[in-house]
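Q: Sequence in, structure out?
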Amino acid sequence: MRWRQGRRSENVDDRRGSRVPGGGLRLGLGGLVGVLLVGWLLGADPLVLLQLLGGASQSVQVPTQLPGPGGTGASEPGDELADFVSVILADTEDTWAELFAAEGARYAPPQLVLFTDIVRSACGMAQSAMGPFYCPADAKVYIDLGFYQDLRERFQAPGDFAQAYVIAHEVGHHVQNLVGTSRRIERLRAGRSETEQNALSVRLELQADCYAGVWAHHADHARQILERGDVEEGLGAAAAIGDDRIQRQTRGTVVPESFTHGSSQQRVEWFRRGLETGSLDACDTFAAAGH
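A: Exactly. Output:
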């Protein structure tokens, strides 16, 4: 992936190595949260996990972190992975600004927070084991860069474009927040059964996958960022984090009714659809029954 010549985003808040005010994060149920698999990959609703973390009530004290001076820090020299994240975020800013402008709207970019182990967001406290997440309450993307090692080694989805897909997916949730999709689906979830709520969550996640593909489509056309093998890396990452594959690996069984992010086939299909068409209209996962 050609990324080194790209501009760096000014919207990266580097909180690694700092401390969060307010004392330790208390984890209940014998420290269960500490051994949870990556929530983002498992298909768990990040906001639900955040609420659980914020409301956990027992026993284990985890070291906490505090924002550095001014709350925002620059990446350390030679910190290539943080540099990569900054470039990809900047590219999503440029791409979505153009797409919004074409519709007569203004794109307000999210801030991306880099953290280590634990972070406080407007959605509550979060642990790195949850994986990357987007908090609509503060319009920020949160990521512990250690996640990429899991993506590469544990889930066998290596490559820089696989890493870029992760960021683009979370930015896709920010786009949903800006256009009101997230609020609409939250209202629809109210009063429904768990199975129905999960099905709506799947549609929301698949649309974020499609939006990630839309970003890659336009970024490549404008700046030729993709190299041979990159598309395969991105599709491989989408497949690796399908609910069915994760459940099979971790539980030994697959329960479709519990899916919240979609199967490997679905995630690949919608990411590919956005990548090939570059069209937001092609990303209407809520109207696409049977996919």
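The longest helix spans residues 194-223.
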